[in-house]
Design goal:
about 170 residues, mainly alpha
């Protein structure tokens, strides 16, 4: 399995583009892109820059279009879409006070935590759902992504250095 993944990233799209694309994928984001770069032997700074850039690509798209998409789902005749839109709107309204109180730094710290479901995709979705200004949300997510990138780079390349030391 690992050979298949490595073959795809190395031979099909290349190491650099592989890290960039991996970092764009929801849930995986740069939490997977940076370790991939380390595993493929990229320098730490290159993995970091590619992963941060890849992770930020979806953020402005989410910020600009998710409200329209949720409105479309609310008006849809498909019950499943109505339920998802209703769930998102209820969650946003329930937590609106807490989110708005700590909006900029709260989103920043939320995105910075290098765990699944706490990345830029979710941070941007939360910002868009509560109606945060696009530029403010973009900067908040960017700072969070940069912090998460530092944490993942230190962890990933520290493990690689330790393994190289042991071998």
């Amino acid at each position: 399995m690992i050979e298949a993944i490595e073959n795809f990233f190395v031979n099909s799209v290349g190491k650099e583009l592989g890290v960039f694309i991996c970092s764009m994928i929801p849930v995986i984001e740069l939490r997977g892109g940076i370790p991939l770069g380390a595993a493929l032997g990229l320098p730490w700074w290159e993995s970091y820059l590619l992963a941060v850039a890849g992770n930020m690509v979806p953020v402005p798209i989410i910020l600009l279009f998710v409200r329209k998409f949720i409105s479309w789902m609310s008006a849809s005749k498909v019950r499943f879409f109505n339920k998802i839109a209703s769930f998102l709107e209820r969650k946003a309204e329930k937590n609106r006070g807490k989110i708005e109180k700590y909006a900029f730094w709260g989103i920043c710290l939320f995105v910075a935590v290098p765990l699944p479901i706490t990345g830029a995709w979710t941070g941007a979705l939360v910002c868009a759902t509560i109606g945060e200004k696009v530029w403010r949300a973009l900067v908040s997510c960017f700072i969070g992504v940069c912090i998460a990138g530092v944490i993942m780079t230190l962890a990933s390349y520290g493990v690689v250095a330790a393994l190289n030391f042991l071998v």
